[in-house]
Write a structure and sequence with these properties.
- The structure is a single chain.
- The protein has a single domain, classed as Maf protein (Alpha-Beta Complex), CATH 3.90.950.10.
- Helix content is about 35%, strand content about 25%.
- The chain contains 5 helices and 7 strands; from the N terminus they run βαβαββαβββαα.
- Strands 1, 2, 3, 4, 5, 6 and 7 form a 7-stranded mixed sheet that branches.
- β3 and β4 (about 80) form a beta hairpin.
- α4 (about 175-180) crosses α5 (about 185-200).
- The longest helix has 18 residues, at about 185-200.
């Protein structure tokens, strides 16, 4: 029998990436939206706190193993904004074109040229068990911003982020390439080690 696992997210792009990254483990993956689970308010002041509260809420509501992430774009010249507010900058309509425009405007306001500005993506994964145990993992990838946005293969802020050592944005990259190097991939690599250890125990 496969183990049920809830992805505590209503973001279909994120759920799709999670399914691909979890495929080798044979979980029966469901999303929070598929199960009509409510999205908890993200009241934490760190990526870790928000990931934990989302995973715990899904685990309690479903009595199943639940995986959540909190991720975002950190722009050094903007005092690490948007950070944990990355999704909120896109508004209730999740308009990331608007959010990317805001990044450019705010960089101009602080006298920083948007293209070439240092930035990095953060992904914190939280694996919550229905018995209350939590495993929290962090991954990062650093790079620079580019404007105007380029590419339609990713989601969120992907079209303005070029990872160090590459010339394409995440929005232009083949998904397999992005999934091999992203902040989420780095966090998942650590999660994979943990899951393999759990399986062997």
């Amino acid at each position: 029998m496969t183990t049920p696992l809830i992805i505590a997210s209503h973001n279909e792009g994120k759920v799709r990436e999670f399914r691909e990254l979890l495929a080798p483990f044979g979980f029966d993956v469901k999303s929070a939206s598929e199960l009509n689970l409510a999205e908890p308010e993200e009241t934490g002041n760190t990526f870790e706190a928000n990931a934990d509260l989302k995973a715990v809420a899904a685990a309690k509501a479903s009595s199943m193993l639940s995986l959540a992430d909190d991720s975002g774009l950190v722009v050094t010249a903007l005092d690490d904004a948007p950070g944990i507010y990355s999704a909120r900058w896109a508004g209730t309509s999740k308009d990331f074109a608007q959010a990317m425009g805001r990044v450019a405007r705010e960089l101009h306001q602080v006298g920083q040229e948007p293209t070439g500005s240092a930035a990095y993506f953060v992904c914190v994964l939280s694996l919550a068990y229905h018995d209350g145990r939590i495993r929290t993992i962090r991954g990062e990838i650093h790079g620079t911003l580019t404007f105007p946005p380029r590419g339609e293969k990713g989601f969120g802020y992907d079209p303005i982020f070029i990872p160090s050592g590459y010339t394409q944005t995440f929005g232009e990259m083949d998904p397999a390439t992005k999934n091999a190097i992203s902040h989420r991939a780095k966090a998942f690599a650590t999660l994979t080690d943990y899951l393999n250890t759990e399986r062997a125990a």
